């Protein structure tokens, strides 16, 4: 039997000045009613977040939650509007970055991942990123080919806010507060 759905959204938010302009994309929205505590948003404060920022959020928020949640299947709505070259999202995830993030998810749900294309506005960026992810799903070995990068200072602030906001609902995040705060 499948568990309840759990949603984690990483997106540009710019304090509500970026689409979807709604508080539902803020870190304070954790779900409604019986879904309360089953939604985590990691809202970037500005443009240009890239591989290092997403990997930091993946490693410090999404992966510990996925481990505790122990999903039966992962439904991945892959929005490539955060891809480098997509001027609508204006973030900087490389195809290698997307491949790395997907590779990190393969250890969950016995590798059962359904990936659906959700967004993106630059055909070349979408094609390159989807190709990198398809290779991961087909079993190609992934090697990160980008230079050592550091997340923005604001990324750590956002991760801290997300953890603090969700700590009451997700006890596995308690130990992370010590290392991130």
TrEMBL record:
SUPFAM superfamilies: Arginase/deacetylase (SSF52768). Signal peptide: none annotated. One of its GO terms (biological process) is epigenetic regulation of gene expression. This is Histone deacetylase domain-containing protein. Pfam families: Hist_deacetyl. It comes from Aegilops tauschii subsp. strangulata. Residues 16-136 form the Histone deacetylase domain. Gene3D superfamilies: Histone deacetylase domain. One of its GO terms (molecular function) is histone deacetylase activity. InterPro entries: His_deacetylse_dom, His_deacetylse_dom_sf, Ureohydrolase_dom_sf. It comes from the Eukaryota.
């Amino acid at each position: 039997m499948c568990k309840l759905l759990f949603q984690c959204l990483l997106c540009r938010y710019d304090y509500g000045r970026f689409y979807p302009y709604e508080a539902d994309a803020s870190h304070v929205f954790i779900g409604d009613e019986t879904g309360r505590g089953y939604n985590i948003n990691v809202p970037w404060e500005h443009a240009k977040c890239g591989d290092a920022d997403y990997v930091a959020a993946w490693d410090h928020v999404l992966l510990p939650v996925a481990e505790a949640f122990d999903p039966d299947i992962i439904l991945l709505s892959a929005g490539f509007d955060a891809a480098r070259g997509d001027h609508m999202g204006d973030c900087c995830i490389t195809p290698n970055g997307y491949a790395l993030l997907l590779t990190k998810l393969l250890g969950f749900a016995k590798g059962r991942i359904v990936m659906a294309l959700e967004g993106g506005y630059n055909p070349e960026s979408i094609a390159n990123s989807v190709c990198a992810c398809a290779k991961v799903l087909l079993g190609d070995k992934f090697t990160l080919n980008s230079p050592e990068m550091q997340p923005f200072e604001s990324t750590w602030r956002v991760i801290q806010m997300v953890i603090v906001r969700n700590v009451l609902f997700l006890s596995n995040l308690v130990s992370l507060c010590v290392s991130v705060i």
